[in-house]
Structures are given as structure tokens and as C-alpha cells.
Specification:
Keywords: DNA-binding, Iron, Metal-binding, Repressor, Transcription, Transcription regulation, Zinc. About 25% of the residues are buried. The chain is an alpha/beta fold. The chain is built from six helices and six strands, in the order βααααββββαβα. It has a single domain, classed as Arc Repressor Mutant, subunit A. It binds zinc ion (3 copies). One zinc ion (ZN) binds next to helix 6.
Length: about 170
């Protein structure tokens, strides 16, 4: 288990991925890696998209479209509609810039926008912390099981509910 990263203790990358040049980013590097990934997939990095991503990346815990819209409205001094934030978050999810935590109805910035993984989340019932882990053996197995049922997998969702280390303490 890796020690929590200073300033980003709720997103703990613990990649067990060794078959490719896996890169995790944080802070300003994360924003530019996200911008590069979005532009590479043929989408524009508009000012609004940039603000939504920066706001999302500032959140340690999963944030909802409403959380982000509220914060952006306060920062800009004019109302940002949750619906437009939601559409941008959706675009981020389909382009691997953000990950949706289904059981929390909220989003996290993806710390590895440059490479695709079926991310696994350990979600704390007490504090809402969502620890992000990648384990290719697990996600490959889930996809294989789905395939055995002739199911065409788009996105396996693996979320583990429980207590984080500090809440269990
Ligand atoms: Zn990777
Ligand atoms: Zn991941
Ligand atoms: Zn907790």
C-alpha cells in the first residue's frame, strides 16, 4: 500500500499495471495531460471545459455536477447551470478524463488520462473517500466472464463499499 500523496490524499493511485508505460499525474501536470488527451481525441479544450476540469481536479472526493456548478458559479460571480456541467463531465468520462463513481452519483478526475483502464474504486461509507486502484487481472477476468455469457462489455463498474483506514480506526 502506497503512502497517501500530500495534498491529494483521497485519490491514491495504486497501479499494478506493468505491461505499459503507465503515467499518473497530479496538479498542473494533470490538467495539461487531460487537455492533451481531449485534444488528441478531436475535441476542443474550451475555457468552460478547462474550468470544469480544474474544479473537478481540485476535489479530493467524488464531486457531483451540482457541487462543481455551485463552486464555478461562486468563482465566476454568475450562475453556471448544473446541466452544462453535467454534459461536460459526460464528455470527460467518454474521453477518459474523468471517472464516474456510480454508487455516489459523482465524479473524480482521472489521474491517468493518457491510458485507459477499468478503474476500481474503494468507496468509504463514512467519509465518501474513493480510493482509485487499477488491477488488469481483475478487470480482464470480469470482461472474460461477461464474454462467456455473450455479453458485449462497454465498461465494467467495480466499486467496493466499506470503511477507509482512517474511518475504521
Ligand atoms: Zn496505464
Ligand atoms: Zn485507473
Ligand atoms: Zn472514510
Amino acid at each position: 500500500m502506497l503512502a497517501p500523496r500530500a495534498g491529494n490524499r483521497y485519490i491514491r493511485p495504486m497501479a499494478t499495471v506493468k505491461d505499459h508505460a503507465h503515467r499518473e499525474h497530479s496538479g498542473k501536470n494533470l490538467v495539461s495531460a487531460a487537455r492533451d488527451a481531449l485534444v488528441a481525441s478531436g475535441e476542443q479544450w474550451t475555457a468552460m471545459r478547462g474550468s470544469v476540469f480544474e474544479e473537478l481536479a481540485r476535489h479530493d472526493r467524488p464531486a457531483s455536477a451540482y457541487d462543481i456548478a455551485d463552486n464555478l458559479s461562486a468563482a465566476r460571480g454568475k450562475r453556471v447551470a448544473p446541466n452544462s456541467v453535467y454534459r461536460i463531465l459526460d464528455l470527460f468520462v467518454s474521453n477518459n478524463l474523468a471517472m464516474r463513481i456510480e454508487s455516489a452519483n459523482a465524479y473524480l478526475a482521472n489521474t491517468h488520462p493518457g491510458c485507459a483502464h477499468d478503474c476500481i474504486f474503494l468507496v468509504c461509507d463514512e467519509c465518501g473517500e474513493a480510493t482509485h486502484v487499477d488491477d488488469e487481472a481483475v478487470s480482464r477476468r470480469v470482461r472474460a466472464i461477461a464474454g462467456e455469457s455473450a455479453f458485449r462489455t462497454r465498461r465494467p463498474i467495480i466499486e467496493v463499499r466499506g470503511l477507509c483506514d482512517s474511518c475504521a480506526g
